[in-house]
Amino acid sequence: MQAWVCENPTGVDALQWKTLPLPQPQAGEVRVAIRAASLNFPDLLIVQNKYQVKPALPFVPGAEFSGRVDAVGEAVTAFQIGDPVAVIGATGGFATHACVKASSLIPLPAGFQLEDAAAFAFTYGTSHHALIDRAALQPGETVLVLGAAGGVGTSAVQVAKAAGARVIAAASTDEKCALCRQIGADHTINYARENLRDALKALPGGKGPDVVYDPVGGGLAEAAFRSIAWRGRYLVVGFTAGTIPALPWNLALLKGASIVGVFWGDFVRREPQASARAMAELAAWYAQGKIKPVIDSRLPMSDLPLAYARMGTRQVRGKLLLVNG
């Protein structure tokens, strides 16, 4: 097998593409022949030693991938060789094969494409947990999605539309805004050249969003919060801008608004049954054509450094995939 190996978590440049012995699954494990893996922001943090999960060295990064079971360990009865599966975890995906606990596998229903499955659980799971669970989004409400053309942003636009919401997608270029309209956004705002608050006021209704979905942080947060509707919910999803905003507490008081934290990974760990129900609903929406991952580009698995470099340009729309074979 081949894999990207991190022996020293000092950054992407320290990763090495190596040939390794094919691993054998232990009791309770299966081996997956990996078809595709997607690149997520935590995959960058983990090789920089900045992520909350710090795996033992050496390790293979890649937290989200899909493929087919090609070997099973003792005591595994739920999966058979050839089964299509998705895997979510912290490591292992940037390779041709991985041995993982059977409990970490997501069986794929008929018709679920393997490449879509590699770009699905993290982003759509996060957006469903945020919008449906944490924000209790109702049909007819308005959702503002910041960073709407990225991986989690495109999933949020689609999940909000599937739930019957009106969606305002905010992104940094006209091309990204056009993509958001293609996947269902009702209105778009290019915040690189438009004042976010003024643009929100100019939209029909003008009362502001009921829900703000923010995976970006940084300088847009206060403008978005000042625009929120009465009883609005501000979803704190992440900080891809690199800075954590500090908001004046009086804004929450004046709007009767809630600041709601979204930590999908711990939700999956703490509430596995609720997480499973959410994934089942998402799979049904996928089958109905209501949601589908936006794939920016597909690169050979051996081109992982190029994928990291593209992610760093902030020009990625949707998800980057690394593909074997």
From TrEMBL:
<dbReference type="GO" id="GO:0008270">
    <property type="term" value="F:zinc ion binding"/>
</dbReference>
<dbReference type="Pfam" id="PF00107">
    <property type="entry name" value="ADH_zinc_N"/>
</dbReference>
<protein>
    <submittedName>
        <fullName>NADPH:quinone oxidoreductase family protein</fullName>
        <ecNumber>1.-.-.-</ecNumber>
    </submittedName>
</protein>
<feature type="domain" description="Enoyl reductase (ER)">
    <location>
        <begin position="11"/>
        <end position="322"/>
    </location>
</feature>
<dbReference type="InterPro" id="IPR051397">
    <property type="entry name" value="Zn-ADH-like_protein"/>
</dbReference>
<dbReference type="InterPro" id="IPR011032">
    <property type="entry name" value="GroES-like_sf"/>
</dbReference>
<dbReference type="InterPro" id="IPR013154">
    <property type="entry name" value="ADH-like_N"/>
</dbReference>
<dbReference type="InterPro" id="IPR036291">
    <property type="entry name" value="NAD(P)-bd_dom_sf"/>
</dbReference>
<dbReference type="InterPro" id="IPR002364">
    <property type="entry name" value="Quin_OxRdtase/zeta-crystal_CS"/>
</dbReference>
<dbReference type="GO" id="GO:0016491">
    <property type="term" value="F:oxidoreductase activity"/>
</dbReference>
<dbReference type="InterPro" id="IPR013149">
    <property type="entry name" value="ADH-like_C"/>
</dbReference>
<dbReference type="InterPro" id="IPR020843">
    <property type="entry name" value="ER"/>
</dbReference>
<keyword id="KW-0560">Oxidoreductase</keyword>
<dbReference type="Pfam" id="PF08240">
    <property type="entry name" value="ADH_N"/>
</dbReference>
